[in-house]
Amino acid sequence: MKNFIIRTITGVLFVAAIVTCFLRPEAMILLFALVTGLTVWEFTGLVDDYQNITVNRMICTVAGVYFFFAMAGYNSGLTPATVFIPYLVSIIYLLIAELYLKHPDPIGNWAYTMMSQLYIALPFSLLNVLAFRSVGFDIQYTYLIPLSVFVFLWINDTGAYLCGSLFGKHKLFPRISPGKSWEGSIGGGILVIAIAVLIWYLTERYQVNELSLNAFEWAGLGLTVVIFGTWGDLIESLLKRTLGIKDSGTILPGHGGMLDRFDSSLLAIPAAVVYLYTLTLI
Predict the structure, then answer these.
(1) pLDDT tens-digit profile of 225-269?
(2) Among residues 45, 57, 71, 163, which is most buried (max CB within 10 A)?
């Protein structure tokens, strides 16, 4: 009972922090820069204990946070593209450094170092692509799309859990995540599509549908988030099985670590970016 209460309080505070941060661009940038740093630090700490792997946690973390700020500055129009140069220098340094450090597995070090950037820093940084958009010669901030991605993920988790508990019989991916079922995943997806259409209706009614997405496009965005969010969850489960751990950390009482909480979003955010850019090409 005590664990349930702690888990509930943490969950409520977590959702409240995510929702309210999107109301202001400064709050969004600061919170997710912090999230990026904590998640990269957590990930590099996990792989540092795995089979002779040694990564520079400090430089990886600082580089990931800097990349997030650089993306925020560039997408908001505050900084030129040259803002990415220090980040590229840090990546080059991390590659060259293995020539001199004489670690037993330099290829493994390179792989996990780059994974910390591609798997964590890049997806979080792409939130800035969803949040800032060009309107003529101006750049405007929008909370609707990035917040919707997280709402879809939360709704999918809730729907999948309820439908899986009630109707789950066929395992979705028993080798990696025995608790997930096809029935739960389908139920969660249907619920997200319904919520996506509801968002379309409300944004049209109150004239805040800034990207002018129609009902089918909103439903497509929801389905994209569901599919790639589920894959993101499974990828983190595979990572934990490979490393031989149950939770990625303990920073969030009752919920595990940062990777445990943001695993779905690490694939859903890039997928949402690709989906929305694809719509502009059709």
Answers:
(1) 999 999 999 999 999 999 999 889 888 887 889 999 999 999 999
(2) 71
Pairing assessment for the beta strands 177-181 and 138-141 based on DSSP bridges? unpaired
Query: Is there a contact between 131 and 147 (Cβ–Cβ < 8 Å)?
Result: no
Q: Using CB atoms within 10 Å of the CB of residue 169, give its burial: 0 to 12 exposed, 13 to 18 middle, 19+ buried.
A: exposed
CA distance 112 to 118: 10
CB 120 within 8 A of CB 266: yes
* DSSP symbols for 214-232: -HHHHHHHHHHHHHHHHHH
Cα 240 from Cα 199, distance rounded (Å): 35
Q: Which of 216, 232, 205, 73 is CA-nearest to residue 150?
A: 232
DSSP assignments along 21-83, one per residue: HTTSHHHHHHHHHHHHHHHHHHHHHHHHTSTT----HHHHHHHHHHHHHHHHHHHTTSS-GGG
Contacts 24+ apart (CB under 8 A), 94-98: 94/56, 94/59, 94/60, 94/63, 97/56
Distance of CA 214 to the CA centre of its chain: 25
- E strands, 64-176, are 132-135, 138-141, 171-173
Each residue's pLDDT tens digit, 13-68:
999 999 999 999 999 999 999 999 999 999 999 998 788 899 999 999 999 999 99
Q: What does DSSP assign to residue 169? A: -
Which distant-in-sequence residues (6+ apart) come within 8 Å of 193 by Cβ?
A: 219, 222, 223
Are 121 and 67 spatial neighbours (Cβ–Cβ below 8 Å)? yes
